[in-house]
Amino acid sequence: MNNIHYMPTKLIFDGWRKSLKDNLINGNCLLVTTPGFRKRGLVDELCKVVNPDRICIHDKVTANPEIYDVSNWLDYYKNEDFKYIISIGGGSTIDVAKAFSFFLASNSSKDILDDFNDKGRSKGKSNAYPIIAIPTTSGSGSEVTPFATLWGKRSHKKYSLCHDSIRPSIAILDPILTTTLNYESSLISALDLISHAFESIWNRNANSLSILNATNSLSLAFKALPKLKENINDINLRSQLQVASCLSGMAISTTKTSLAHSISYPLTTHFGIPHGLASSFTLPKLFKFNLAEDDGRLVKLSEQLGYKSVVEFELFLMDLFIDLEINSIIKSYLPNNQNWIESICDDMYTPERAENNLRAPKTEDIKALVYQSLYC
Hints:
The protein is α/β, with parallel strands linked by helices. 49% of the residues lie in helices and 10% in strands.
């Protein structure tokens, strides 16, 4: 097991307005958010806290941010004098803020695509601008991770930033901001955090702290998620999921993700499947797959979550995904035939993710995991 890495993000669990006011950084800032938050008045609320003369507003972020769009946006802001960045939104919004932080601070005039190698990983280095992240979803954990994901819809490629400098300096966690999400968006976000937690447990890079964070994350998520549909505005459930997301983000900051994420990437780039769905639908089958080479951590996980055996926990997990109708939701994005599995199977193996998995997968394993997860 690997050594433990220090996480420098300051976590604040309080009302976002007061917390932001108390932690403002001197100088001009770039606010990164979505059109929806502008329409709902959140941007106006923020401008009551931050001097509007010192803020530049970027409200064009959408889900699965396109790298070509980010490149164009960077050209627009490259001559601005920012001292820090505020991000209000979900994981995609925070990821765009990280990209802005990374590339604007480098003051480079070249195309950002030049900073990525053929496999979509960043080669660049940057001091980066400080980020204050205010998450409005409970799933990505991006408010505490050193990762950011951009997508190439034309290239069908995922682009990954990984650098300690882009980990937010401050994360403000106010569950009231997550209550604007409908049930489906909340579910997809929660599936993302559950995937992160599992992926960091059955991971070759795990250590005792990452496993503890991931286990606590799953404990909170499994208690809150089944109740959420009938209690969509329950602030206690929202708070539990927000903390669960943060804990799973801490876990993957140590381990990175694994096989479920490797499988997910082409499903998002080819079919537009939301990341939380694409990275989670294989989890019940992956749990069983990794049990074949369990070193005791999955047995211990089952016990710590209150189950008498791994078999009992495996059945719970399968039943949960049936109750949440994950299979039918993800199938709504896919072709009616099953030929698509063969056509993108090679793309489902991303070595730097798949090779983190506790049990080494082969191509036929990946095909079987996807087929069994959807059609059996």
